[in-house]
């Protein structure tokens, strides 16, 4: 950041006009040229301006802080929670003394990822809004990080189309910013593949997953390689290439055993259970789901998904004692996790296991289905609109049945079009 830009930054920070700063020192037009870096002022003029601003002009060399930012970014990239917190405390104590807008914007951009790592999903909203206002002054390199982290944030909020748009821009600025870090590229491609899976764009998801996998293999990052094999398994399962899916699940399982990664083993068992469920091998599916739970003590969100899967399988078998046991645990856990999506699904099965009546109809029409529609989840909207439509068919309310079955078909068509 040049001297003129720093003068302008501190003037605006103190809410002074150019005339107020310039009076008795130099002309307003000359100050304007200095602030716009169109001319170089004498040391005497700079000293007088700094004195009026009440600052000591910081040195141009901010290499120490830049190094700290680089280290902080690496910790964030590798999900190193403790190191990320330590470095945040280090840089945040110095940032108030910084008048370099590039460094200040770098700090804000890295804070997006930092809050995501800490599972604080409120703070990034205001930061992203601020950076969007400052977007014109961001370098191509900073635009890469902004779009990457903003895409990461949108993904955590299930805003997958928005996430994908940000990540497309990140890929563009990765090239323009001349970023040569393969680990950054691998992480970007992994984020893209995760997002594309959610958008059901499986061919593209497979492409980016394989690109990311090759990069991580070259970096000997076994944990991420295992995660990508699992993701590829999901992609191939969804396009009905079951043998290829199983191959990737086996790779994920083998790597996770070797590196002692129990959560991933739990997710592999979860996906194998889903495969068996698709093939109507319900008892085998239940066995995989129960085994999955053995590995998920430390991940309540993932545990919630498995419990819901068990509820669905026990409902198919009409084994209501076991269903109610898991249903009770699932409702409690979804409330603790503030996961409204899963909570509504558990409540639907609670009604189904007990009594489908007017209260069920009201719940579906005023709470569950509007929520699935509002959050833009066509899969759940299709599944549970069909559930309600079938209920109305059974009680011979054919007009209502037709309405909700049509709603389900529209949602299914949207899924096919994604």
């Amino acid at each position: 950041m040049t001297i003129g830009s720093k003068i302008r930054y501190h003037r605006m920070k103190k809410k002074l006009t150019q005339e107020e700063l310039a009076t008795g020192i130099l002309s307003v037009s000359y100050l304007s040229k200095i602030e716009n870096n169109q001319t170089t002022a004498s040391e005497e003029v700079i000293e007088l301006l700094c004195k009026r601003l009440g600052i000591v002009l910081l040195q141009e060399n901010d290499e120490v802080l830049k190094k700290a930012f680089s280290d902080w970014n690496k910790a964030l990239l590798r999900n190193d929670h403790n190191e990320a917190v330590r470095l945040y405390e280090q840089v945040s104590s110095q940032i108030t003394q910084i008048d370099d807008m590039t460094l200040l914007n770098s700090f804000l951009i890295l804070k997006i990822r930092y809050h995501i790592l800490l599972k604080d999903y409120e703070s990034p909203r205001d930061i992203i809004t601020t950076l969007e206002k400052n977007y014109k002054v961001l370098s191509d390199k900073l635009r890469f990080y902004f779009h990457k982290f903003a895409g990461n944030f949108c993904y955590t909020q299930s805003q997958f189309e928005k996430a994908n748009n940000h990540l497309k821009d990140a890929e563009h600025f990765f090239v323009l910013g001349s970023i040569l870090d393969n680990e950054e590229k691998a992480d970007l491609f992994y984020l893209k593949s995760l997002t594309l899976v959610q958008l059901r764009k499986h061919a593209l998801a497979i492409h980016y997953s394989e690109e990311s996998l090759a990069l991580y293999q070259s970096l000997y990052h076994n944990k991420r390689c295992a995660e990508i094999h699992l993701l590829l398994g999901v992609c191939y399962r969804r396009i009905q290439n079951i043998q290829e899916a199983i191959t990737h699940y086996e790779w994920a399982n083998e790597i996770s055993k070797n590196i002692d990664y129990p959560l991933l083993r739990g997710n592999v068992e979860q996906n194998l259970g889903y495969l068996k469920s698709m093939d109507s091998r319900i008892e085998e599916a239940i066995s995989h789901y129960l085994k999955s739970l053995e590995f998920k003590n430390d991940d309540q969100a993932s545990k919630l998904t498995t419990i819901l899967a068990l509820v669905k399988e026990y409902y198919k078998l009409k084994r209501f004692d076991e269903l109610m046991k898991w249903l009770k645990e699932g409702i409690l856990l979804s409330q603790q996790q503030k996961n409204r999506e899963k909570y509504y699904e558990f409540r639907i099965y609670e009604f189904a296991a007990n009594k489908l009546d007017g209260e069920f109809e009201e719940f579906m029409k005023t709470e569950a289905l509007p929520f699935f529609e509002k959050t833009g989840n066509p899969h759940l909207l299709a599944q549970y609109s069909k559930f309600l439509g079938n209920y109305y068919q059974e009680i011979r309310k054919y007009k209502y049945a037709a309405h909700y079955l049509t709603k389900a078909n529209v949602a299914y068509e949207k899924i096919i079009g994604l």
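The longest helix spans residues 398-417. DSSP finds 22 helices and no strands in the chain.
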